[in-house]
Design goal:
The chain is of the alpha/beta class and 162 residues long. Helix content is 37%, strand content 21%. The protein is globular.
C-alpha cells in the first residue's frame, strides 16, 4: 500500500535534509513546501515580506501538493510531505483531508537540541512533542536529544480506503 510520510518538526531540526534522504532511500516523491514557495513566489515577493502574504501562498502550495500527491499515490508510489506540520491543527486538518484515500500514513517527528537548531537559524526554542498511539495527539518528550542528528519518532496508521 502506498504511504504518505509526514515529516514534522520545529525550524532548524533538519526536516528537509531528512526528507531528501528518505526519498532517495525508499524511492518516494518528495514535496517540500520551502522549495515550492521559493520557486513559485519569492521572485515576486513584496518587500517587506508580510506574514499574511507568505501564509496565503503556503496554503496554495499545500493544496496543490495534496492534489499531485493523490495522483502519485494512485500510481503506487510513496510521497513525502515536508510541509512543517509543527501544529497539531495542521496535522489533523491534513489527516481529515486524506481520510478516504487508499494509503497508509506514517508520521516522522524530528527533534534536535536547541543549540543545534539555533545554529541552523531557528528563531526560538520550541520543543517538539513525541507522538502517542494516535497520529494527531502529542505528549511532551521528557528526554531531548543531545546529538546534532535529529531524533526521530515514527508511527504508521492506515487511512480508510474509498
Amino acid at each position: 500500500m502506498p504511504t504518505i510520510h509526514m515529516i514534522c518538526g520545529p525550524v532548524g531540526v533538519g526536516k528537509t535534509t531528512y526528507a531528501a534522504k528518505l526519498a532517495a532511500d525508499i524511492g518516494a516523491v518528495r514535496f517540500s513546501i520551502d522549495d515550492w514557495i521559493s520557486e513559485l513566489f519569492f521572485p515576486d515577493r513584496p518587500m517587506p515580506l508580510t506574514y499574511d502574504w507568505a501564509v496565503e501562498r503556503a496554503k496554495r502550495c499545500e493544496a496543490r501538493i495534496l492534489v499531485v500527491s493523490r495522483d502519485v499515490l494512485a500510481l503506487g508510489t510513496d510521497v513525502i510531505w515536508d510541509l512543517g506540520f509543527m501544529e497539531s491543527t495542521q496535522r489533523r486538518r491534513i489527516l481529515d483531508d486524506v481520510g478516504n484515500w487508499p494509503c497508509a500514513v506514517r508520521l516522522h517527528a524530528l527533534e534536535a537540541p536547541t543549540d543545534i537548531r539555533r545554529e541552523r537559524g531557528a528563531p526560538t526554542a520550541t520543543p517538539l512533542r513525541s507522538p502517542t498511539k494516535s497520529s494527531t495527539s502529542w505528549k511532551a518528550d521528557p528526554s531531548p536529544s543531545t546529538t546534532a542528528k535529529p531524533t526521530i519518532w515514527s508511527e504508521s496508521t492506515t487511512v480508510n480506503a474509498y
